[in-house]
Hints:
- This protein has strands at about 10-20, 20-25, 30, 35-50, 50-60, 70, 75, 80, 90-95, 100-110, 115-125.
- The chain has no helices and eleven strands.
- The protein has a single domain, classed as Jelly Rolls (Sandwich), CATH 2.60.120.1570.
- The relative contact order is 0.41.
- It is about 0% helix and about 55% strand.
- Strands 2, 3, 5, 6, 8 and 10 form a six-stranded antiparallel β-sheet that branches. Strands 1-11-4-9-7 form a five-stranded antiparallel β-sheet, with no helix packed on it.
- By secondary structure, it is mainly beta.
- The model has no long low-confidence stretch (mean pLDDT about 95).
- Keywords: Membrane, Transmembrane, Transmembrane helix.
Amino acid sequence: MSTYDEISVTKSISPLVRTDGTVNGTSVDTVVSGGMQDAVLLVTSGAVTDGSHAVTVEESADGSTGWAAVAADRLQGDLPTVESADDDTVFMTGVRPSQRYLRAVMVTTGATTGAAISAAFILGRPRTKPVSH
């Protein structure tokens, strides 16, 4: 079996230029192929002209209410804050969710022209293999 058979990738924040404000990403259901036990938040930046773009991870039982930050002890690595020195960079943070749904949240401050940033989740450790794509 290959890596392709053991992961699923889902977008949470579309790749757009962001200026000041908060973006709540699309919810990502971790119950694919019988359930995925782990996730990796993948944040990708393009051109970053100004501002601070802090990305966090939230989880929810139903994917629409009760969103809360994933506890720090359930994260591997640091959550990224993308700044002007981070053009064309990829950041990864491991996530061990305790709820069914995940989403990326990005808070941008101090941005006039902003940054092109996207976020996706790589879901892994499926309960049933191979993963259905």
